[in-house]
């Protein structure tokens, strides 16, 4: 059960890294754009500053597999960087080539079980089903996680399920229940995982009683 932060914001990672609960980071071009940093420099800073992260996804964007592989090469020099490719014909060609070159690969933009089958066959280290975007479009993202889990349990090829596009702590928990190995989430969703009004209220009562004992 691993927790990844879905952000390219250095400070956001830094503020949560010392909880000891964060196993990795995922980025995408939109998140890099939001951070305002150069893609390579952003990933390099994360890789160098947070050595306990087991995987930092850096996405490549190109039409052809050969161009994706070329784009990936500088990232592959960095520690613990995973190359993220789209689930297309060329993306899965690139996935196979990158695995042969020794990279770990995250196949992203997964919206069906059939895509997850192809990604596993292409040697993906991780597949990223987009739970929230499926829900936005009237489909059941959690059902997809369960279906992929069942397929991978019956036909194991070693690919891990990395639930992505997750927008609430409730959905985080349900992704694990349905069989996700990893959930990547925005920093704000991670923070809200600690929250319960009953914890706050219970703590206030305990504090009050503690103070009266120690008067
Ligand atoms: C991470 O790997 C994905 O790119 C990300 O979770 C997508 O999230 P969104 O659908 O909220 O943009």
Account of the 3D structure:
It is a single chain. With 215 residues, the protein is an alpha/beta fold. The protein contains 11 helices and 8 strands. The chain has helices at 10-17, 29-35, 39-49, 65-76, 89-100, 113-121, 131-136, 141-154, 169-177, 187-192, 197-213; strands at residues 2-6, 24-26, 55-59, 81-86, 104-110, 126-129, 160-163, 182-185. An 8-stranded parallel barrel has the order 1-2-3-4-5-6-7-8, surrounded by 6 helices. Residues 6, 26, 28, 108, 128, 130, 132-133, 164-165, 184 line the site of erythose-4-phosphate.
Mean pLDDT, all residues: 98
Structural class from helices and strands?
A: alpha/beta
Can you count the beta strands?
A: 8
Strand count, sense and barrel status of the largest sheet are: 8 strands, parallel, barrel
Which word captures the global form?
A: globular
One letter per element, helices H and strands E, the order comes to EHEHHEHEHEHEHHEHEHH
Q: How much β-strand is present in the residues? A: 15-25%
Radius of gyration: 19 Å
From the N-terminal CA to the C-terminal CA, the straight-line distance is 44 Å
Associated small molecules: erythose-4-phosphate
The number of helical elements comes to 11
Helix proportion: 40-55%
Low-confidence stretches: none
* Oligomer state of the chains in this structure: single chain
Strand order of the largest sheet: 1-2-3-4-5-6-7-8
